[in-house]
What we know:
Blueprint: H1 41-67, H2 75-79, H3 93-112, H4 118-141, E1 146-150, E2 153-156, H5 158-165, H6 167-191
Antiparallel strand pairs: 1-2
Helix pairs in contact: 1-3, 3-4, 4-5, 4-6
Amino acid sequence: MASVTSAPRRVRSLLANEGTLSLGVFRMSGGLSMTAPASSADEWFMAAGRLVSRYGLVVVLIWIGAGKYVKMESRVLIQHSPLMSWLYDFLSFEEVAVLLGTMEIVAAVLIAVYPLWPRLSVGGSALAVVLFLGTLSFLFTTPGVIGSFAGGFPVLSAQPGQFLLKDLVLIGVALWTLGESLEAARARSANNVPRPNQPVRP
C-alpha cells in the first residue's frame, strides 16, 4: 500500500536538467517532467510555488492586458505621470491603452513559453519588470493614493493605492522568472557547446 508521502515524492523541483520544470505529470524539453522523484514534501511545495508564481503572473498579465482593449482604467494614472504622460502628445487614450495591453499580453506569452524557449522567456520577464516599474511609479504621482491617516500612519485608499501596491509583489515574481530563465538559457547554451568531433545538439 502506497505511503501518505508517496505523492510528494512524485514531484521534482521546477528546475532540473537544463532548467527542467517538473510536476510529476508530463514532460516537455526544458520544461515539465515526471522523472526523478522528489525527496520530501518541501520540494513539492517549492515546485508548486514556482509553478503558481510563473503562470499566475501569466494569467494576471493576460487578464489585465486584455482589459485595456475594452476599458481605459489607466488613463488617470498615466495623465499624472511625468514618465508616461508624454505619450498622450502622440497617441490617443485608446491607442495608449491598446499599446500597454499588447505589451502585457506579449510579456505573458513569452514568460509562459519558458519550458520550451527560456531565451524568449528572458525577454518576457524583462518586459514585465519594466511594466511593473512604471506602474509602481504611479504610487508617487497619482492623487488619492493615501486615503487617510490613522495616528500619523498613512492608510492606502482601495483605489488607486491598494490596487497599485500589489505590483510590488508582481515585480518580485517577474524578477524571479527573469533570473530563472537566464539560468536555464545559460545551462542550455552550455550543453549545446560541441566537444571535439561532436556536432551541436539541435
